Amino acid sequence: MSKAKTGDNVSVHYTGKLKDGKVFDTSKERGPLDFEIGANAVIEGFETGVVGMEAGESKVIEIPSDKAYGPWREEMTIQVEKDKLPPDLNPEIGQTLQVPQQNNPQPLLVTVVKVEEASITLDANHPLAGEDLIFEVELVEIK
After folding, report:
1. E strand or H helix at 107, and its extent?
2. In sequence order, what DSSP letters do the residues of 13-42 get, joined into one string?
3. Contact, 77 vs 113, CB < 8 A?
4. What are the extents of the domains in the chain?
5. Burial level of 100, CB count in 10 A (0-12/13-18/19+)?
6. b/e map of 53-75 (b: 16 or more CB within 10 Å)?
7. How confident is the model over 5-48, as pLDDT tens digits?
8. Which is the most buried residue in 18, 21, 96, 143, by most CB within 10 A?
9. 0.85 exceeded by the pTM?
10. What CATH class is the domain 9-70+128-142?
């Protein structure tokens, strides 16, 4: 039986967990994830963890934060005065906002992490930044 290698298109089922066991994502309800190994379509540690697996094989892949979404970085947070916000915006902690970027047509996704009387604090780190991740992976198919 062949083993998954760089350049292969694969289909996997997965459940992603944090170290405390909390599930943050799973493919079980929506169907397997398809991607090409080596195309950087998924995080580095996930991709390299699938290399060498055979169709039908399951395994647990532990991914340190530097091979996942990187460290949480303080410089990715910013305090914004409320008078600079759209007047119809009522920010709440946990709310995700899209912020236009000057040299990029793709908006930046940020999370409201603090709301004060005159300002809010936004965090542009990925929600899983700084987290070591654990994936239970089943290689469904090598296409």
Report:
1. strand 104-115
2. EEEEEETTS-EEEESTTT--EEEETTTT-S
3. yes
4. 9-70+128-142, 74-123
5. exposed
6. bebeeeeebebebebbbeebeee
7. 999 999 999 999 999 999 999 999 999 999 999 999 999 899 99
8. 18
9. no
10. alpha beta
Half-sphere exposure of 5 (CA within 13 A, CB side): 3
Summarised one tens digit per residue, pLDDT across range 81-121 is: 999 988 898 999 999 999 888 888 888 899 999 999 999 99
What the block records as the tokens of 68 is 């996942």
Q: Return the structure tokens found at 36.
A: 């090409």
Please tell me whether residue 84 adopts helix, strand or coil conformation: helix
Beta-carbon contacts of residue 28 (< 8 Å; ≥ 6 apart)? 13, 15
Question: Residue 133 and residue 131: Cα distance in Å, rounded?
Answer: 6
Q: Are 51 and 5 within 8 A, CB to CB?
A: yes
**Residue 101: beta bridge partners?**
104
- In one-letter notation, the amino acid at residue 48 is T
What's the DSSP call for residue 54? B
Dist. CA 133–CA 46, nearest whole Å: 9
DSSP 48: H
Pair of tokens at residue 23: 């599930």
